TrEMBL record:
<protein>
    <recommendedName>
        <fullName>Solute-binding protein family 3/N-terminal domain-containing protein</fullName>
    </recommendedName>
</protein>
<dbReference type="Pfam" id="PF00497">
    <property type="entry name" value="SBP_bac_3"/>
</dbReference>
<feature type="domain" description="Solute-binding protein family 3/N-terminal">
    <location>
        <begin position="2"/>
        <end position="225"/>
    </location>
</feature>
<dbReference type="InterPro" id="IPR001638">
    <property type="entry name" value="Solute-binding_3/MltF_N"/>
</dbReference>
<comment type="similarity">
    <text>Belongs to the bacterial solute-binding protein 3 family.</text>
</comment>
<keyword id="KW-0732">Signal</keyword>
Length: 232
């Protein structure tokens, strides 16, 4: 089989540091491309470095990418393969239900540097955006009452509480996500094989959805809510 290189930062349960249980996205990309005659060599890099390497065509794919207009200028996007909404986490003693951007007025909100947030969130001046270097840092600030809200994908945040020795029962989520996002596989337009690889993934994705592999992987990684809203 031909080998494709792929990169991501650790983003459990989508991408993990555990070779025996590498993550939902890693297994989806591997299974989809395997149907098209490709093997995958995965690398774990910090997000900014991985994006740089792919953008310069030194690595072929990023496994989990949110869409932004800026990135679309230099990346080719696959079909969306999973919803990873940006959720609002708060301490259990905080009562808040997100009802639109203005409902954030006056809040102290931690956001991670260089993530793909919507432009309205980056430009807003009616709340205090506290920039952090990682989601773990955001959660530590939330636990210490230095911010009111941490934002990120709920499954990732729940996973990241564990190494911090924080109890998930001490936190809860707004019923309404702040931003609805989907993840894609991407390749750089500078890579001459970009379209070929992305089209191969799209074809393989349809195959693993039809043969049950995709649903099996959702169950394996606990990515099914009662109403399955994460898979929209």
């Amino acid at each position: 089989m031909k080998i494709i290189t792929a990169v991501n930062d650790a983003w459990p349960p989508y991408v993990t540091r555990d070779n025996a249980r590498p993550g939902f996205s890693v297994e989806v990309v591997t299974a989809a491309l395997h149907t098209q005659g490709y093997d995958i060599e995965f690398l774990l890099f910090p997000w900014a470095r991985g994006l740089h390497e792919v953008r310069n065509a030194r690595i072929d794919l990023i496994t989990t990418t949110w869409y932004t207009d800026a990135r679309s200028e230099y990346l080719v996007y696959s079909d969306p393969y999973f919803a990873t909404n940006i959720d609002i986490m708060m301490r259990k003693d905080t009562i808040f239900d997100y009802s639109g951007p203005k409902s954030l007025t006056g809040k102290r909100i931690a956001s991670v540097r260089d993530y793909g947030y919507d432009q309205w969130f980056l430009d807003a001046e009616y709340f205090q955006r506290v920039e952090t270097t990682s989601l773990m840092s955001s959660l530590q600030m939330l636990a210490a009452d230095r911010i009111d809200i941490a934002i990120g994908n709920r499954f990732v945040m729940l996973q990241e509480l564990k190494p911090l020795n924080l109890d998930a029962d001490d936190f809860h989520f707004s019923p309404t996500p702040m931003i609805k996002k989907h993840i894609h596989v991407t390749a750089a337009k500078a890579n001459p094989n970009a379209s070929k690889y992305i089209q191969a993934f799209n074809r393989g994705l349809e195959i693993i959805k039809q043969n049950g592999t995709f649903d099996d992987l959702k169950k394996k990684y606990g990515l099914i809510l009662p109403d399955d809203t994460t898979a929209e």
